[in-house]
## 1
Amino acid sequence: GESVGLHLPTLSVQEGDNSIINCAYSNSASDYFIWYKQESGKGPQFIIDIRSNMDKRQGQRVTVLLNKTVKHLSLQIAATQPGDSAVYFCAENGQFSTGRRALTFGSGTRLQVQP
Amino acid sequence: DGGITQSPKYLFRKEGQNVTLSCEQNLNHDAMYWYRQDPGQGLRLIYYSQIVNDFQKGDIAEGYSVSREKKESFPLTVTSAQKNPTAFYLCASSIADRVYGYTFGSGTRLTVV
């Protein structure tokens, strides 16, 4: 079946560096994408979203890039801080077109920030 | 403040028992969802509900049951038919008629003892 996946299960970066977390999706019907951050033992928190009519969207220290041609999504975190250490998930709405109005989540990438 | 509350935070179940996980939201959201998360894995959809008194199965509904008698509440029962229930359970809600993201609860960790 169609799914959302991530290329790197664990990403380790130095404090102050920029982080890039990638996500590949396969459902061509997907037109809305979200990044979530999940700290240990907690529920996921919304970071940023993007619709398919955009290629880039910026938030505070975060940028999401969408390449519909290759079905690829990335989350860029500028000046990574220790508080950014968490698991990051991408999610998409591709199944909405089949009547299932629920998001599909990727398997997640763990970001470790080294001091 | 509006939010979504899951209880209890930790739950222990003996084999053969049914247990019910609570999820309550005061965000006036129409849609609610249950996801299961296993260690090092993503979220898998168990059940979701777009409106009161209606719900649909997700990818891993076997061994689980839900009800949606009130807009604010979407309890999940883990039945004895669920052979491997130990996991982290996440409830979420959203505005049903909009393609927006979810608001998640803080989760319930269920352990079979």
## 2
Amino acid sequence: SQQGEEDPQALSIQEGENATMNCSYKTSINNLQWYRQNSGRGLVHLILIRSNEREKHSGRLRVTLDTSKKSSSLLITASRAADTASYFCATEDGGFKTIFGAGTRLFVKA
Amino acid sequence: EPEVTQTPSHQVTQMGQEVILRCVPISNHLYFYWYRQILGQKVEFLVSFYNNEISEKSEIFDDQFSVERPDGSNFTLKIRSTKLEDSAMYFCASSEMVAGLIEQYFGPGTRLTVT
């Protein structure tokens, strides 16, 4: 089974619109993290939400976590062309391993 | 701002050759990781390293792979006999505490091409 599956796989929106990406996972987690990856580049950590938290904000980012449904969402408000990237959720179960999902490719049209 | 660095940025090697990918983690970090990303696919965990030993490894990290912290600054990933399917981006990461309690900082990656 796969941990951390995002949907949609791809999302295309206009600049200024909000973008919502979802992530589902299968096992118990300590926390869930969201990362961004620009094409051909490394991963940039965006936000970490712990299993006892339900919502977290950072600038234009809002992350929610529903442990009963084993799901999380990442909302980017007032999107910009520079937000164009792939977004990954990643889970950690208390060990030394972080498991990434397949990612959502976001394209923001100027 | 401190950052994780990786060298080389691109490595081309022939099948069967040994390669060493190098990483310099952030200086006060204690936990080190290698991940790989085959083109167009998800980022896959390979191995974590703490206190000079492997903490956890995935099924991908077989006997062809090894990691080492040869000195106080470098963290290396060695592939003994490369295969075509080892072609991927390899990312190094480090963190102050165990992953999950605090964010991991990723390097820019090394693109490995096996021909």
